[in-house]
Write a structure and sequence with these properties.
Helix content: 55-70%
Largest sheet: 2 strands, antiparallel
Number of helices: 12
Strand content: under 5%
CATH topology of the largest domain: Cytochrome Bc1 Complex, Chain D, domain 2
Number of strands: 2
Distance between the termini: 141 Å
Number of domains: 3
Radius of gyration: 32 Å
Length: 265
Amino acid sequence: MRKLSRLRRRKITAPALLLLALVIVGNAYAFIGATVTTPGATASNARSTMVTEGREIFLRGCSSCHGLNAEGGGVAPSLVGVGAASVDFQVGTGRMPMADMSVQAIRKPSRYTAAETAALAEYVASLAPGPAIPGAAQLTFERDGNTAEGGELFRTNCAMCHNAAGQGGALTQGKQAPSLMGVEPRHIYEAMITGPQSMPVFGDKAITPQEKLSIIKWIKSVENEKGLGGASLGKVGPVTEGLMGWVGGIGLLIAISVWLATKSR
């Protein structure tokens, strides 16, 4: 005890103890920092990895038309500022990449996996701000959508191109509005906020997010609607029904006329 008491009274004891404490604390902090990664840092690292992977995919499959830096070219538009939602829609529905940019892109099986599509979208999103991919928290159309309201909104804003039953229709210059049957809700939402090809952009001021959910709910209700009898004839209303009646009626009259002429000989 006397030795300890004498050591404490020495002038060098206090600085030495302070230095030892600092060394211990510094090493402990360095060890903890090296072994523990914050969630924010993990997310940032994951996003950086996706951006790098997306750029590699872009350079292989998209840069020949859209440019090495997605600045666009003579046959394809710039992708700067289109956002992740546009990429997810175009690539996720198989419309892109396409061999001939002079024709209308059609829906087909995607050439990329979901992970590759997500990486491409993340890369394009890193170029400039743009519409993001809607998540599950936004696509609550079954809970928050209103079918009746969605039908009214669809007939007002969409039916002139996509047909009153969402079956698609012809446009000018050989183009067409595709059928909306079997389309994923996420892709319907993305189409409304990005305006692919001939479709206008329906921003949140034109059609609110809740109204978009109502439109999706109405489309899905039509898609799941069961026929109550007879042929649906594409659900395009009296046009095809009248045509079938006219052709069938005229055909029947011609057949009767031929039969009567044959019997009279």
